[in-house]
Design a protein that fits this description.
The chain is of the alpha/beta class. It folds into 3 domains: 74 residues, Orthogonal Bundle (Arc Repressor Mutant, subunit A); 125 residues, ATPase, nucleotide binding domain (Nucleotidyltransferase, domain 5, 2-Layer Sandwich), CATH 3.30.420.40; 160 residues, ATPase, nucleotide binding domain (Nucleotidyltransferase, domain 5, 2-Layer Sandwich), CATH 3.30.420.40. The chain is built from 14 helices and 15 strands. The strands form 4 sheets. It has a 5-stranded mixed beta sheet. A 5-stranded mixed beta sheet has the order 13-12-11-14-15, with helices on both faces. Strands 1-3-2 form a 3-stranded antiparallel beta sheet. A hairpin with a 5-residue loop joins strand 5 and strand 6. Helix 1 crosses helix 3, helix 2 crosses helix 3 and helix 10 crosses helix 12. The longest helix is centred in the last third of the chain and has 25 residues. It is globular. The structure holds zinc ion.
Length: 385
């Protein structure tokens, strides 16, 4: 019993020290002792263990207030590599990152048809290619994270993808695990994006955020006290299907007047596509930048509808920050103003200013970086739990 307790204490100390070195390196042993309150011999022995495991290394010498200059410890971000993949409605975005989330390699593949069965081979060959080009490292590939725009349950099974033809009998997690022999994590796309922004992006300095992914549909990722809130079954955040017009358009989910029928990219583009006038989001962005009056009016309405749903989100969660991920909102600044106007016209003045409304700083890589960070966290936790 005493031995078990000692083991636990050692692991906990190692976790505290590794976290400090990851966040604050280069750092000296003396400074680690000061910050963590652990005595110098404990720090020294745990640091030696982490060096033996190739997770940290020593570099030159740091600043000293006098006497011998201390050796500095650095987190070995190249001890291994992680793959993050964002399976979208019509594309796959894949990245290879180091253990600090720096993108080392990236790949993007347009999909011919939104069908997972047909694109399974595309997915596997992208992973193989990233592995082939991966730099040498002590731990090699530490895991693969994937996200999909759909419902993912707590067992990481994909349950429903409204905009992709998915074979629900296919166990994607097992398939990728068996093929590549590393831990695999599957996450909802908005959850992954929220996590990416929290760890590496716009939400780095906030503990309570809502990430709003506006694409073909709308999904939100909820971070409460630094952790993802997934709901009992993993289905939390389906705000795209909140009714904003009770007599409104019929939605494929069975409801009427859902938010995403008015404020998604699909809702924005479909009327233009049916006239054959405009076929891509990039054309909308180009016309907005040329001050095309009709497009500016359309985008003002887009911001108005986004603001309606966002007001409900603010009323529900009272977050520190809302992060919006959308190509058009990121490219055309007036849309964010329309969103702000829409929110403030529907909220109490004090309430309307209680949050930060921010754009995604990771852009299209947010979900892939989020899945990669989940892999990295799992990897680092293995040494300290
Ligand atoms: Zn709906």
């Amino acid at each position: 019993m005493i031995i078990a307790d000692q083991m636990l204490v050692k692991k906990m100390n190692q976790k505290v020290l590794l976290n400090e070195i990851v966040s604050n390196s280069p750092i000296s042993r003396a400074r680690l002792s000061e910050i963590t309150g652990l005595n110098k011999s404990t720090v020294s022995s745990q640091v030696n263990t982490l060096i033996e495991k190739n997770l940290i290394f020593e570099i030159g010498q740091g600043q000293s207030s006098g006497g011998r200059k201390p050796v500095m410890l650095v987190f070995n971000k190249n001890a291994g590599y992680s793959i993050g993949l964002d399976i979208g409605v019509d594309s796959i975005n894949g990245i290879l990152t180091d253990l600090k989330g720096n993108i080392v390699l990236d790949q993007y593949q347009q999909l011919e048809k939104p069908s997972l069965d047909k694109n399974k081979d595309v997915l596997c060959s992208m992973i193989k290619d990233l592995i082939k080009k991966m730099p040498d490292s002590p731990y090699g590939l530490i895991g693969i994270g994937l996200c999909v725009p759909g419902l993912v349950n707590t067992e990481q099974q994909v349950m429903f993808t409204p905009n992709i033809d998915w074979n629900y009998n296919l166990d994607l997690k097992s398939l990728i695990e068996q093929e590549f022999k590393v831990p695999v994590f599957i996450e909802n796309e908005a959850n992954a994006g929220a996590y990416g922004e929290r760890v590496f992006g716009s939400a780095k300095n906030y503990e309570n955020i809502i990430y709003v992914s506006v694409g073909t549909g709308i999904g939100i990722g909820i971070v409460i006290n630094n952790d993802l809130y997934r709901g009992v079954n993993g289905f939390a955040g389906e705000m795209g299907h909140v009714t904003i017009d009770f007599n409104g358009l019929k939605c494929s989910c069975g409801n009427r007047g859902c938010w995403e029928l008015y404020a998604s990219e699909k809702a924005l583009l479909t009327p233009y596509q049916s006239n054959g006038n405009i076929t891509s989001y990039q054309e909308i962005i180009n016309l907005a930048n040329q001050n095309d009056p009709e497009i500016l009016m359309t985008l003002q309405n887009f911001g108005f509808y986004l603001g309606i749903g966002l007001t409900s989100i603010l009323n529900t969660f009272n977050p520190q920050a809302v992060i919006i991920r959308n190509d058009i909102v990121e490219a055309v600044p007036m849309v964010l103003n329309s969103i702000r106007n829409s929110i403030s016209s529907r909220s109490n003045e004090k309430f309307a200013n209680s949050h930060e409304l921010l754009l995604s700083s990771l852009g299209k890589n947010a979900p892939a970086l989020g899945t990669s960070s989940l892999v990295i966290e799992h990897f680092l936790a293995m040494f300290t739990s």
